[in-house]
Write a structure and sequence with these properties.
alpha/beta, eight-stranded parallel β-sheet, two-stranded antiparallel ribbon, 11 helices, 12 strands, 16% strand, globular, binds NADP nicotinamide-adenine-dinucleotide phosphate
Length: 333
């Protein structure tokens, strides 16, 4: 494993983290036993950054990570446990509803996450989304009080605008911005957001770095997705878009074969090559995928390969928005 620093004030973490969301929700049938073994393997291979959120399965994903942390209490200090608050569940539908980033809510959410994770502190605490009606200074002020109280070590924001990031960082140093970043989704990060992060010394934690599995080449049609798989509602997996996107993945596979790696590894190596300040967190609940993904740190990607991968997936050729409409409205505030 290789290690990177999360921003000028943040912790050192493995260059590839582990996204835990899919262990509880979103991508097919959960498998607790295999998920726990995947976490064991993460520890063995030197992965130190674990990513979860209170919104994943209404706290059940934090509980799953908490069960693992309980079994590995003596390794707690080696791990950087990252979680998020702000996406509240609608009590009637059980789905993610309002964004709450108010000063009253932040400590309540934090204490609930600490309880579910069974830890004394959260290493990296993100605002998952921003409610534009709440000044970011109010939210970050409340997060800073958690740092002062020793409940949180470092703070982060997810899917915010460069202007919000600047205001937030003026209140308390932000270590990381978590945002979707992959060969399929580049324009959100590249440009003003990345420039602002670099100016302020903030790392980019790249989520959905495998395009929610699409970039791995393991999917060949929409019908392979389970009936309750979230991707059935995702535009890039819709009937009218998926074949165009899979054609791009085939082109990535051709480049990967020439490099001597898998498409997933090419996608992750490409992200790692964008800068020492980029940390992808591919999600998986399976040991074999974790092993493959972690090996991306050793893929020798030349500058020419990097440029070729970029040209192979022209962003305008990717069919469909990255989120369904209601979720898109919560981004970039
Ligand atoms: N801040 C935010 O708003 C936000 C949003 C989304 C996600 N996240 C975080 O980012 C993490 C990663 O994103 P993500 O899970 O959405 O997407 P992702 O990492 O792009 O893709 C995950 C999907 O790819 C599959 N996969 C992983 N490695 C594979 C491999 N080597 N070969 C074949 N398939 C492979 C997984 O399968 P299995 O599930 O079968 O293992 C899963 O279906 C999440 O776990 C979560 O912690 C944050």
């Amino acid at each position: 494993m290789k290690y990177r620093k999360l921003g000028s004030n943040g912790p050192e973490v493995s260059a590839i983290g582990l996204g835990c969301m899919g262990m509880s929700i979103a991508y097919g049938v959960p498998d607790e036993e295999e998920s726990q073994r995947t976490l064991d393997q993460a520890l063995e291979t030197g992965v130190t950054l674990l990513d979860t959120a209170d919104a994943y399965g209404q706290g059940s994903n934090e509980e799953l990570v908490g069960r693992w942390l309980h079994r590995h209490a003596q390794e707690r200090d080696r791990m950087v446990v990252a979680t998020k608050f702000g996406l509240r569940h609608d009590a009637t539908t059980g789905r993610v509803g309002d964004v709450d980033t108010s000063a009253e809510y932040v400590p309540l959410a934090c204490r609930a996450s600490l309880r579910r994770l069974g830890v004394e502190h959260i290493d990296l605490y993100y605002a998952h989304r921003r409610n534009p009606a709440t000044p970011i200074e109010e939210t970050v002020g409340a997060m800073a009080r958690l740092v002062e109280a020793g409940l949180v070590r470092h703070i982060g924001l997810s899917e915010v605008s460069p202007a919000t990031l600047r205001k937030a960082h003026a209140v308390h140093p932000v270590s990381a911005v978590q945002v979707e970043y992959s060969l399929f989704t580049r324009n959100v990060v590249e440009g003003e957001l990345l420039a602002t992060c670099r100016e302020l010394g903030i790392a980019v934690v790249a989520y959905s770095p495998l395009g929610r599995g699409m970039l791995t080449g393991s999917l060949s049609s929409r019908s392979e997705l389970a009936a309750d798989d979230n991707r059935r509602r995702w535009p890039r997996f819709a009937d009218e878009n998926i074949q165009r996107n899979l054609a791009l993945v085939q082109a990535v596979r051709d480049v990967a074969e020439r490099i001597g790696c898998s498409p997933a590894q090419a996608a992750l190596a490409w992200l790692l090559a964008q800068g020492e300040d980029i940390v992808p967190i591919p999600g998986t609940k399976r040991r074999r995928y974790l092993q493959e993904n972690v090996a991306a740190v050793t893929v020798p990607l030349s500058d020419a390969d990097r440029d070729l991968l970029r040209r192979t997936v022209p962003e305008e050729a990717v069919a469909g928005e990255r989120y369904p409409e209601a979720a898109l409205e919560r981004l970039g505030h």
